[in-house]
Specification:
alpha/beta, two-stranded parallel ribbon, 7-stranded mixed beta sheet, Spore Coat Polysaccharide Biosynthesis Protein SpsA, Chain A
């Protein structure tokens, strides 16, 4: 079997309006760059049948695999399941609401050939958000994270990243993949402590077209702040 260059992991919950189009666009963008790939959907038994829809639609496409979890729930643990099933040399993790644009995926993979950990960043030239209020608040919080834990990145809340699988597997998943988006802060911090190389590519967040956001901004802010402080004080 030929080596797979990239494994794209898609944690899903109630994304039936996006999932088919998203996978098709990811595959198109990677194929245009002749990047061999697989797509792994990890669905938390969505009431809107996201996982079943993906299974049915891509049933004859072997490079698309769908895992439907009947018991366990949560973004971070879903990502871990996908990582543990991935076989690509480079793993890519992204949201399924089109906040993370498929056209950026090949750029992450190409950059990751020469760098261990590459993040799709809103806060470098070319990046940004359609929602300017959230962009401003996220920017301020990212500045705080950089100060508190000495992060080398401008965007520590992105959750859109590529990483060499060989480097990722050296990390302790138990210490990282729990909770919600705060897992990403822990991942960056523990990766930094291993002295790996980091890079960022621009990423622009569009507004969601289908479905509703599952993120509650104030609750997320509290959880992310706690995760950051715990890393600083050594409690994580």
């Amino acid at each position: 079997m030929a080596k797979i260059r990239a494994s794209v992991i898609l944690p899903t919950y109630n994304e039936s309006g996006n999932i088919v189009k998203l996978i098709e666009e990811i595959k198109k963008e990677l194929s245009l760059k002749r990047i061999s790939h697989e797509v792994i959907v990890v669905d938390d038994d969505s009431p809107d049948k996201t996982g079943l829809l993906a299974q049915k639609y891509f049933s004859k496409i072997p490079e698309v695999r769908v895992v439907i979890r009947k018991k366990e729930r949560g973004l971070a643990t879903a990502i871990r399941v996908g990582l543990e099933k991935a076989v690509g040399e480079i793993v890519v993790v992204m949201d399924t609401d089109f906040n993370h644009e498929p056209k950026v995926v090949p750029r992450l993979v190409e950059k990751c050939k020469h760098t261990d950990f590459v993040v799709g960043s809103r806060f470098i030239k070319g990046g940004g958000m359609a929602n300017k209020t959230r962009e401003f608040l996220s920017y301020l919080f990212n500045v705080m994270i950089r100060i508190i834990i000495g992060s080398p990145l401008h965007d520590n809340l992105s959750g859109f990243f590529a990483m060499k699988r060989i480097e990722l597997e050296k990390l302790n998943y138990e210490k990282i993949f729990w909770g919600y988006g705060d897992y990403f802060i822990r991942l960056i911090h523990l990766a930094k402590n291993r002295d790996i190389s980091f890079a960022e590519v621009p990423s622009f967040y569009r507004d969601r077209e289908y479905g509703s956001s599952k993120s509650q901004f104030l609750s997320m802010f509290k959880d992310y702040l706690l995760a950051t402080v715990n890393l600083r004080t050594g409690k994580n």
